[in-house]
Amino acid sequence: MQVTDSTIHIGLIREEKIPHDNRAAFTPQQCQWILQNYPHVQITVQPSPHRCFTDSEYTQAGIPLAEDLSHCHILLGIKEVPQEKLLPGKTYLFFSHTKKQQPNNQAMLQHIIDQHITLVDYECLVHEDGQRILGFGFFAGVVGAHNGLLAYGKRTGLFTYRPVHTCHDLQELIKHYFGIKLPPLKIVITGSGRVAAGILEVMGMLGIKYITPEEFLINSYAYPVYTQLKAGELYLRRSDKTYSRDDFHTSPENYECRFLPYVTASDILMNGIYWEEGIAPLFSWNDLAKDNFRIQVIADITDDTNGSIPCNLGDSTIADPVYGVDRISRERTAPGLSRSIDMMCVSNLPNELPRDASQYFGDQLMKYVFEELLQPYSTTIENATIAKNGQLTERFAYLEGYVQDRVSGQ
Questions:
Q1: If both were cysteines, with which of 46, 348, 402, 406 could 101 make a disulfide (CB 3.0 to 4.6 Å apart)?
Q2: What is the DSSP string of 279-320?
Q3: pLDDT tens digit string along 50-78?
């Protein structure tokens, strides 16, 4: 990052996308630490009525507020920035949701290119081994697991919880779990990444016992249990019944899904598995319509509409997180109906624990990205840069058609 003077000005932008996100790239204390340890850095925060940390929390930490961030070289947000709010020629970091050619963000990316904005996408920041540096998956897993259990409790009338978003932070949620005894139930968890780690955290806090997949399928229990299915247990190559991670992601169409036996042995599915086009779904609509389909609640935490879960009919909201899907007609219904399966498909789950999620995100940003961002050149930053100097970077040249399609459609 090259600047004309010795001071690097960084701005925390207000989240403008609707519905408003309440997370922040840095907490007030993290901003304070940066200023103490990087004397050549200045941070300015754009005021926001929606951010989980109040404006006064930043000012009390010694961080100035300003509506105008035009003096800043680097601007940090969380979600996509409406194109009319983007400042020409600046460097932005946020989750752009453009690398998969998402239709909703075509116009934003074209505007970024037109305005010679440098776009660094958090999602594309990776360690040398290819693992993502930043993400909110752990807290999505925590909240999604809680919401899945809450949905099951409401559906059966066996227990109840308070919603996560009514808790100030994770510590208050943990206190809420004290003394709660769950009835016998069987939970199947998919995935092994950050989302799954968050789900497992809730399993541990509630004392839900792990059972191996083999035992889970054949045994009944007088207490709540869960099992976990990683990608190598869920997907096997059709030709030789083996699994290779690289081959699976290169040629997912050559793999079959082995999840079906679990639909007859589980009460709740907590889905944290990665999905993209070409990967087989966990089950089919026809499977859902069968009498032996036992699952009553699906917490689709990775939340891909019509993806690994066919009956994900679209996002729900934090305020109204669960909807029903009729097993036969395949239509959306109210939750809790006898012919329906209850779906929890909230796309912004970490917003229910925004202070903790922001703290974790900012920690990773400071440890692995911040110093790279201040250097004249960084391979880590360069590899995550989608647009620069009025054009797509070489790594993201495959988006050219995506961008040009938008131009021709205007």
A1: 402
A2: SPPSS-HHHHTSTT----EEEESS--TTSSSTT--S-B-SSS
A3: 999 999 999 999 999 999 999 999 999 99
